[in-house]
Amino acid sequence: MLRSSIPALLVCASCGLPPGEHTSTTVESAITGSTYAVRTFVPDGAPKDAPLLVVLDGDWHAVPAFLEAADDAHEPVIVLSVGYEDGNERVRDYTPTTVAAYPDSGGLDAFARALEEEILPVAPGTSTERIWFGHSLGGVAVTYLWLQRPDLVSTAIVASPAAYWDDGLLIDMAATTSHDGEVFVSVGGQEGWGLPALASALAHELDAPFVEYPGREHTGTIAPSLRDGLLHLLERQ
């Protein structure tokens, strides 16, 4: 259910963001029971049929996505970011399996239904072309859906994926699953948890372009991954 929709025109001089149309919509999900803060941005001059960039972890990643959306190095994209109105259920929503250390995990299938049936319908624009962005656990969600739900996720940017999840589940899946979509994988050279090697192995199994950013730690991969991923994927469309 949509609880509120507040459109506003924002310009750089007043908010530090590129000029364009920003909206904020609250979606109460009957599927997951959570309330999502859905923020959208249509850059000035973007055509109605511009590709839609769907951004997970919108509480943190909406602004970097808005800034990148209007970059003239590539065609403009319309942004739909998904965050949380109250609390944060990303461990539940972004993980495909339940692991003992996180008893609330494993809710990705339900979250995918909420995205498809309740959240994506509020997206502006007319394009059916979507590019998904997920970082860390969001990268787990996007990769899993890219492998299992190509009808929903066929083009994706996966930054610093937490590929250690459930003993390397994604790497095992990627070794035996494929489809014709596009995916771009990145990682920081200074990340912990063994992520550089895990992301490289995942990209290899996905047969995906892979970039490692030397000197970058976990959160330092968000902006460059958006930039390089969009440059690569939009060039390939």
Beginning-to-end CA distance, first to last residue: 34 Å
What strand order characterises the main sheet? 1-2-3-5-4-6-7-8-9
Count of strand segments: 9
Residue runs with pLDDT of under 50 for 5 or more positions: 1-14
What structural category characterises the helix and strand content? alpha/beta
Shape: globular
Can you write the helix and strand succession as a string? Answer: EHEEEHEHHEHEHEHEH
Major sheet description: 9 strands, mixed
Average pLDDT, all residues:
93
Beta-strand content = 25-35%
Helical fraction equals 25-40%
- Rg, Å, rounded: 17 Å
Total of helices: 8
Describe the structure.
By secondary structure, the protein is of the alpha/beta class. The protein is about 35% helix and about 25% strand. The protein has helices at about 10-15, 60-70, 90-95, 110-120, 135-150, 165-175, 195-205, 220-235; strands at about 1-10, 20-30, 35-45, 50-55, 80-85, 130-135, 155-160, 180-190, 210-215. The chain has a nine-stranded mixed β-sheet, with helices on both faces. A hairpin with a 6-residue loop joins strand 2 and strand 3 (about 35-45). The radius of gyration is 17 Å and the shape is globular. The termini are far apart.
Characteristics of this structure?
237 residues; alpha/beta; 9-stranded mixed sheet; 25% strand; globular
Give me a quick take on this structure.
The chain has 237 residues and is α/β, with parallel strands linked by helices. The chain has eight helices and nine strands. Strand 4 (52-55), helix 2 (58-69) and strand 5 form a beta-alpha-beta unit.
